[in-house]
Amino acid sequence: MCQTSRQITVTVSRAHSDEPDLLSLEVYPEMTVETLQSSIEAETSIPPTAQHLYHDGNLITDKAQTLEALHVTNGDMIAMHIREPRNPGAGSGARASQQAGGAAAAAGTRQRQPGEPDPEVIRLQILGDPRLREEAIRQQPQLASVIDDPQLFAQFFNNNYDRERRERQDRQRQIAQLNADPFDIEAQARIEEIIRQERVMENLQNAMEHNPEVFGRVHMLYVDVEVNGYKVKALVDSGAQATIMSPGCAEACGIMRLVDKRFAGVARGVGTATIIGRVHSAQIKIGSLFLPCSFTVMEGKSVDLLLGLDMLKRYQASIDLAKDRLIIQDVEIPFLGEADIPKDSEEALAEEPTFPGPSGTTIGQRSGVVSGPEGQEGSSAEAAQVPPAAPAPASAPARPQPQTQTQQQPLSAATPAPAAARSPQPPAAGGASFPEEDVQQLMALGFPREAVLQSLEATGGNVQYAASLLFQV
Predict the structure, then answer these.
(1) CA distance 193 to 212
(2) Which domains occur in the chain, in start order?
(3) What range(s) does the Ubiquitin-like domain occupy (predicted)?
(4) pLDDT digit string, tens, across residues 344-380
(5) N or C: which end of the chain has fewer CB within 10 A?
(6) What DSSP string runs through 297-348?
(7) Is 56 a catalytic site residue?
(8) Nearest-CA neighbor of 353 among 343, 344, 366?
(9) Which of 162, 181, 237, 340 is catalytic?
């Protein structure tokens, strides 16, 4: 039975050519992929071993399949990427045609080393798998703007690959230099620090890849209450020992006149705050319940009302995160949504200090929130040059807590706590000046002065964090 012939177009993408070549072929439905590759070889002198064929974005791996089984119809387009043979003596004809077709582009493109992955093969695999593409863009947002351009993707891929290779070589060279004298205690301590930082960054990368939810922003738990008829958004904080109210809220509720100043003092926790006094009893409405409650009036709080452990235990309250409810005496009070909570906490998160993370991201030092690369001037350059580093010391004052820390304060799983408290010197605007002793200490590790000054400025003058940053470069 005679089969109707079909016309297809094969786009031939070469590693060192800006524009793909177009090849028109007459094929038949019963033709196998192996036969198609032989036809392409007859037209282009490219051996089948160097041909990677893609149809509808999917790599064709079964050479025995027919074009009809692959649903190749008349007028379809098949993409072919040429894989360079790794044997220097093989495929000389293919390389000659590649060099002739892409000599101008090859002048500014580096040659891949044996064993180095092919950027175009990786790009086509990502394009052919929507889930893989979504995952790759989530891990590296910059891919979204280059994935559809072979040249830009190859440049992006090669830059990342070269940077990682240089970092590995630098670390190996540093360790080799330090191992020159195995009895040098300081050298062994530096090697230990290098290895520790590598494990820290490996842990961070694994967390971002396998548990990205730990870097999401966690919103605090607020409920609507009424104190003496005045509506307030109250923060539910099981980590606070007492129920706390700000002086402004006490004035608005009309209970400031009931403050017993004999209970004045200073609360010490994560910082200090002045306690004005205590309101021994006032009515609070939570849901449909009217409950008596005592309040500690305290300055320096960023929330109007904080329901502490004393009030929660007194009424045997239950925080049900599965239902997103606060349950008191079988009455369920819904927690406020993200749009309804006070904006003070959002502004505090926006102003928190950050440190650079992988792929140009930034990570909040206190909350652990990961943000994508900002579109500000110089952000792309910083993302390409500044590798992930240890977190810089916090510059914003900590919020005071009465005797116990707040359990719901979001913590970063990748933020190590400093071993000892140290007041970093803030970098001066325009040109930071740091103690010469600190500069010389870092230069003694083998780093140039300019890199030392940049790392000190990036870490607020903290020598330990600056050293960690330098070892990652």
Answers:
(1) 26
(2) 6-109 (3.10.20.90), 222-344 (2.40.70.10)
(3) 8-87
(4) 655 555 555 666 665 556 666 555 555 655 443 333 3
(5) N
(6) EESS-SSSEEE-HHHHHHTT-EEETTTTEEEETTEEEEPPPTTTS-THHHHH
(7) no
(8) 366
(9) 237
